Structures are given as C-alpha cells and as structure tokens.
Amino acid sequence: MSKDVSAKVNAFMDKVIEKNPGEDEFHQAVREVAESLMPFLEENPKYQEAKILERIAEPERVLMFRVPWMDDKGEIQINRGYRIEMNSAIGPYKGGLRFHPTVNLGILKFLAFEQVFKNALTTLPMGGGKGGADFDPKGKSDNEVMRFCQSFMAELQRHIGPDTDVPAGDIGVGGREIGFLFGQYRRLRNEFTGVLTGKGLTWGGSLIRTEATGYGCVYFVEEMLNSKGDSIKGKICTVSGSGNVAQYTVEKVNQLGGKCVTLSDSSGYIYDPAGIDAEKLAFVMELKNVRRGRIEEYADKYGVKYVNGKCPWEIKCDVAFPSATQNEISEEDAKTLVKNGCKAVGEGANMPTTFEGTQVFLNSKILFGPGKAANAGGVATSGLEMCQNSMRMSWTREEVDAKLHGIIKAIHSQCMQYGREGNWVNYVKGANIAGFIKVADAMLDQGLV
Ligand code: NDP
Ligand 1 pocket, 128 CB below 6 A? Predict the structure, then answer.
C-alpha cells in the first residue's frame, strides 16, 4: 500500500476510534476492511464522494436493554441485552444472537459489521445485524435459560420481524435457546412467522441449518484447495472449539476423507492423532449438546492427550479450522502454523485471527479463507430457511445442501474475482471488496439514508 493510501486509512481509523472509544474488536474489524478497500476506493471516487465507508461503519440503529429474570433460588438477576441493526440496504437485518459473559457493545458491533459484508457475499437479500447478552448459559438449568430467553424476547420482539430483522444463533444460542425465544415471540405477537432462523424442524426450521456453518466452511476450504489442484482428502486438520461449528466441520472433513485431530473448549484442547471418527464425534455431540460437559472428558474416555489452557495451533496440520471465538490465533500461533506446513486456514469462527496473525498468513501466501467468506454458509442457509418460511414449504436435505454448496462456490468465485494478485488469491481483499460493492451500490441507489 502506498504511503498516501496508508495515511488515508489511518485518518479514517482515527475518527472511528475517537467515535467508538474502547471498542477494540470493532476497530480491528473496521481496520481490516479499510486497509483492503482503500486502494479500491481511490480508483472508484463515487464511493468516496458518497462517504459510503464512513456510513457503513456507523450502525443504522443500536438497541440496549435491561433483561431482568429470576434464578432457581428465587433471586433476581439482571443482564444487558443488545441488538445492533447495522445495515439494511440489501435486505432485512440478519445475524445471530450471542449469549456469553464477555459480550459487550464493541464485540457485537464488530460482529454486525462483518455480517454486512458476509451477507452480501451470500448472494441473498439480507442486511447485517447482531445481538446478544452478557448472560452465561453455562451452569444454568433449562428453566433458568428459558426464563432468561423469555425476558430477553419480551423487549426484543418490538424491534424485530420477518421483514425487519431476523436473528439466529451464535455462541451460547443453539436449538434450545432459539426454541424458547421463538415461543415467547409467538405468544406475545400472536403470529407464527419466520422471525428467527435455526428453528426446530417441526416448527419452521430448515434441514441442514444446524450443519451449515461447519459444512460450508469445509466446502470453502475444498474450493480453495481445488483451485490449486488439491483437496481435503488425506489432510490432517486441527479444529478449535467443540460447539456447533466445530462439530459439523469435523463431520464434513470426515466425509471428504480428511482427518481431524483436535477439538477444544475455553478450558483446553484434546489431541487425538488417530482422528475424531464418526463414533467419537457422536460422543462429543452428546457431551456438548446434551450433557453440556467439558472437552477434557474426551481425553479420559479415549485415552488421548489433553492440554489445559491452550489452543491447538501448536499441533502440526495441513489445514486449520479455528471454530471457537475471536482472536484465538495470535501472531505467534500463525507463525507456528505456517512453520509447521499448514497449507490452508478456514475461519469457521468470526475474526478468530488477530490483525497481526492475518498479516502472517497473507505474507506467507497460504490459502487463507476469512470468516466473512468461509463461515457464510450458516447465514446463507438461514436465508434459505427464510425463503422456505415465506413460501410455507420445505426443501429436502439434498436440495438445501446443493443450494448451500452452490452459494459457497459463488462466494469463492467472487473472492477470486476481486482478490487475485498474480497467481495467488488474497481472499481477505476479495471478500471485502465483493461484499462492499453490493452494499455500496444499493446505498448509492437509495440516496442519503
Ligand atoms: P457454540 O456456543 O456452539 O460453541 C462455541 C465453542 O467455542 C465452544 O466450544 C466454546 O467453549 C468455545 N469458546 C467460546 N468462547 C470461547 C473463548 N472465549 N475462548 C475459548 N473458547 C471459546 O458456538 P458456535 O459454534 O455457534 O460459534 C463458534 C464461532 O463460530 C463463533 O465465532 C461464531 O460467531 C461463529 N459462527 C457461528 C455461526 C453459527 O451458525 N453458529 C455462523 C457463523 C459464524 P466453552 O463451551 O468452554 O465456552
């Protein structure tokens, strides 16, 4: 990047930081986009004149609200709920809800900002949003989770709707939580609509939605490898996390003939050199989705190594799938992965690589699929769930999977189109520019709104 362009990025970021103090993750996400967009904007002054980048970095609306609820002991608890309605230029706000004690405004704004570009890449008409609460579902009874969800939705329901804003799940919000949230919405509004995605199959959910983020991420990595005449088959993969995205990443890697050797949670990681096969994965699903236990139990059951307090990036691999949370791959981790021969990274999680770690991957010119492209399969299938709800019909598993696969291929092509640099593809740049153009053109068409 030239000195002049770099100065423009810094000037823009100074304003973003001044306006949004203390929101480190938001600054990080905006900087990454600004760095890859600025040279493109210089060549396309119409976007600069209309201040599209400045407008995109400002949410259309931010909602913050009190969520009081009663625990099993009869004690009153108070959490803070949020919904960031970031951009609706190309469709209703769409994006997940995260329930985790670390949730704050900056984290949700970074997620909502990323979502705008990701949703544009899916080719479906969805704007970007994100929400959640600093509520920790860990250690809570089902009844406590239900009372929390009901209180959360008592407020959220007045701001969302099938043509306005359609939330889904994210960390800490899975099928159980979506059920409680949907039930409360339906009761308060007296209407049965597709206001949430990730619903149960008997009440408006779509086949493959549960699997979609993990499957989509593996499809994306397969596309990147295919472009180099390679494939997942026979590859050793490290996966972090052990929730929704991680579980279905392992399932799809197995189906394509690769081998996953790690999983983790916020306490540590397991290393199983023999590979996490279908039977072991079924154990993980029961452990995490039903018993809600710790991944360490896997090591006890299968007699493999458990490493406390660390992420799995020190394990040698061909492909890494960070699928837990933001900033879980540091600069050092990225260097270790590259040094150990990692050929491809598929970000199942949102912004799992630090800014410095991303530079390491880009400079080493490995295949690096950023979250807004690699994990877009989840929201894409949510978009397909919205379609089915509007039509009041449902597609088969094969139909949804084929559409998901087609969308991932389309995202990969867009990244290639805008990210090609010689015989290497900068997928970060490609995803940012392709996502931006769609939203920016819609904003230009719609005037100053
Ligand atoms: P889950 O809640 O199902 O699983 C999250 C996993 O990540 C758990 O293993 C959890 O461990 C671990 N984790 C969470 N926070 C931390 C932390 N601070 N440090 C270390 N590990 C942590 O969430 P999902 O699988 O749905 O989401 C994972 C990632 O994928 C997130 O970044 C999310 O934004 C992203 N994503 C999810 C989509 C979806 O459709 N679900 C769509 C697109 C992206 P523990 O149990 O110990 O907390």
Answer: no
Instruction: Give the pLDDT confidence of 27-42 residue by residue, as tens digits.
Output: 999 999 999 999 999 9
Other beta carbons within 10 Å of 28: 17
How would you label 320-353 residue by residue, b for 16+ Cβ within 10 Å and e otherwise? bbbbbbbbbbbeebbbbbbeeebbbbbbbbbbbb
CA neighbor of 25 nearest in space, from 383, 371, 334, 308: 371
pTM over 0.85? The answer is yes
**CB of 349 closer than 6 A to ligand 1?**
yes
Q: Is the CB of 348 under 6 A from ligand 1?
A: yes
pLDDT for the residue numbered 3 = 87
Residue 216: name the closest of 178, 259, 251 by CA.
251
- Provide the CB-side half-sphere exposure for 278 (13 A, CA): 5
Structural domains of the chain, ranges and CATH numbers in brackets: 61-192 (3.40.50.10860), 212-369 (3.40.50.720)
Q: Are residues 319 and 342 in contact, defined by beta-carbon separation less than 8 angstroms?
A: yes
pLDDT in tens, 175-188: 999 999 999 999 99
Residue 324 CA, ligand 1 centroid: distance in Å: 4
Ligand 1 binding pocket includes 378 (Cβ within 6 Å)? yes
Q: Closest Cα to atom 31, ligand 1: which residue? A: 349
**pLDDT at position 1, please?**
77
Give the ligand 1 atom nearest the CA of 174: 3
Active-site position among 130, 140, 280, 403: 130
Q: Is 130 a catalytic residue?
A: yes
Residue 2, pLDDT above cutoff 90: no
**Mean pLDDT, the chain, as a whole number?**
97
pLDDT at 4: 87
